[in-house]
Design goal:
Distance between the termini: 35 Å
Helix content: 40-55%
Radius of gyration: 23 Å
Structural class: alpha+beta
Number of domains: 2
Strand content: 15-25%
CATH topology of the largest domain: Jelly Rolls
Shape: globular
CATH superfamily of the largest domain: Jelly Rolls
CATH architecture of the largest domain: Sandwich
Largest sheet: 7 strands, antiparallel
């Protein structure tokens, strides 16, 4: 079977390696089992690569689909009083509900209410997307005019939609979603981001910006830093520009967590160097190479900072055996 599951990891499904008739059968089986209401489109090649996360208060579907139609609404098998928020990351889709038809381009998003009647998302050709299903009662009170709108298009370029997709990229990881408390926090952030994207009320926007939007922005900034640690010129201005915020705002986010931007980068560079020094695959590499690889340009400064953090030199850490005294005293890595 192409479908697998794990305790924390999502359900995964892929048509890769299947012949055309088998792909259609596999997709129909998903529908029959109540896992995903999609139907093959006649005359098109079915393609699917999906991961579905089940969180307390939200489900998240990510991946790629083509040659299929996705159904929802009160007559669907898994119908409930939910809101569906979908983002076309790349490719085109057509959404229909209540006699209306909307074309989604790459970067567009759409909000659909199952209570407003049946809806379909048709994807004849390949589309990369993310879809989030949330309880209506949790999000609708935050959205202006939610009760009167059956289908709402959010055009590409909306900042909070981009922020939400970046946030999902960062948090949809089994190591991150390792506790119920973290999962509930992530879901609360998603509720806020959906409301902001769809047009929050004045009070809803104030609450969402202080909650989900702030948390998502911090996650995105931390992910940006982690991906660019090797850059010696990883300045706050550079990161702020990539994230579309001001350097002052970046500083404020870190200060609210009790750490400065500079301290956060230093800690993560040292943590990465520590892991590399303990990794047998890096045993043949010189310590200076490891220091440069994690973003240090001054070897003396690296050695001093490393000793302050671990109460041991890089050479001593490398010389200890796995699970020994030095490993026990290493501080826990940050959550970025």
């Amino acid at each position: 079977m192409p479908l697998t599951s794990a305790t924390i990891a999502p359900l995964r499904f892929s048509t890769a390696g299947l012949l055309a008739p088998a792909r259609a059968r596999a997709v129909r089986e998903l529908r029959e089992r109540g896992l995903l209401p999609i139907e093959p489109l006649r005359g098109y090649t079915v393609q699917a690569r999906l991961a579905k996360w089940f969180l307390p208060g939200a489900s998240v579907l990510t991946g790629a689909l083509g040659g299929v139609r996705q159904d929802g609404g009160p007559h669907a098998r898994d119908a409930s009083d939910d809101l569906f928020f979908g983002v076309n990351l790349a490719g085109g889709s057509v959404a229909t509900q209540g006699g209306r038809e909307v074309t989604l381009r790459g970067g567009d998003a759409i909000l659909l209410s199952e209570a407003a009647g049946p809806f379909t998302l048709t994807r004849p050709t390949g589309v990369r997307f993310v879809g989030v299903r949330v309880p209506r009662r949790a999000v609708a009170p935050l959205i202006a005019g939610a009760d009167s709108t059956s289908m709402r298009l959010i055009e590409r370029g909306t900042g909070t939609v981009t922020l939400m997709t970046r946030y999902l990229d960062a948090v949809l990881d089994s190591e991150v979603l390792a506790s119920t408390e973290v999962c509930r926090a992530v879901v609360a952030h998603l509720h806020d981001l959906i409301a902001l994207s769809a047009g929050a009320t004045r009070d809803g926007a104030a609450m969402a910006r202080a909650g989900g939007a702030r948390a998502a922005r911090l996650w995105a900034i931390k992910a940006d830093i982690a991906a660019n640690l090797v850059d010696e010129m990883l300045t706050v201005a550079t990161v702020a520009a990539r994230q579309g915020v001001t350097p002052r705002y970046v500083h404020k986010l870190f200060e609210d967590e009790g750490v400065t931007y500079t301290q956060f980068i230093l800690q993560h560079r040292l943590d990465r160097a520590f892991r590399m020094l303990r990794d047998p695959r890096c045993a043949v590499r010189r310590i200076s190479e490891i220091a440069y690889d994690v973003g240090f340009s001054d070897l003396s400064y690296f050695n001093r900072a490393f000793r302050r953090r671990y109460d041991a030199t890089p050479s001593e850490i490398r010389g200890t055996c796995q699970g020994g005294r030095a490993a026990k005293r290493a501080p826990a890595p940050g959550n970025g």
